[in-house]
Design goal:
This protein has a single domain, classed as Acid Proteases (Cathepsin D, subunit A, domain 1, Beta Barrel). Helices cover about 15% and strands about 40% of the residues. The protein has a 5-stranded mixed sheet with strand order 7-6-1-2-9.
Length: about 140
């Protein structure tokens, strides 16, 4: 299977909340539409420092992770972002990895938005068709 990419929009979740409260205008929400690599082996959303700064995200903490090449690295955990794909969205705290060549859309956002990779067509699709199906156990 080749590399699957998807167009997603990331929004500063605090800006979205402030806009809903009337503290800032909707057009002042910091956001960016990008091509992300869909990486089912990545745990969550992974962004680089530049995108973190562009979205105006503060750093909430750090975590030690193991990268795909088995190198252990300490990454920053950023403030929440809204992740939008077509008519689906979710909120997560992205990991900020220095010098990452691409934004990675990992397993947690994919699961939350009920998405999967269609290996035949090499594209991101709804795991249960056009309707989001969430399991609550």
């Amino acid at each position: 299977m080749g590399i699957v990419q998807a167009e997603i929009t990331l929004k500063n979740a605090f800006d979205v909340g402030n806009s809903q409260r009337g503290l800032i205008k909707a057009q002042d929400i910091r956001l960016k539409t990008i091509q992300a690599v869909v990486d089912t082996g990545a745990m969550t959303l992974v962004i680089d420092e530049e995108l973190c700064l562009e979205l105006g995200l503060g750093i909430m903490g750090k975590r030690q992770v193991t990268l795909a090449n088995d190198v252990k690295e300490t990454v920053k955990i950023a403030e929440p972002v809204e992740v939008h794909w077509k008519d689906r969205d979710m909120v997560c705290r992205p990991w900020v990895v220095q010098n990452t060549p691409k934004t990675l859309l990992g397993a947690i956002p994919l699961e939350e938005m009920d998405l999967m990779v269609d290996p035949k067509h090499q594209e991101l699709v709804g795991a249960h068709g056009d309707e989001i199906e969430s399991l609550l156990l």
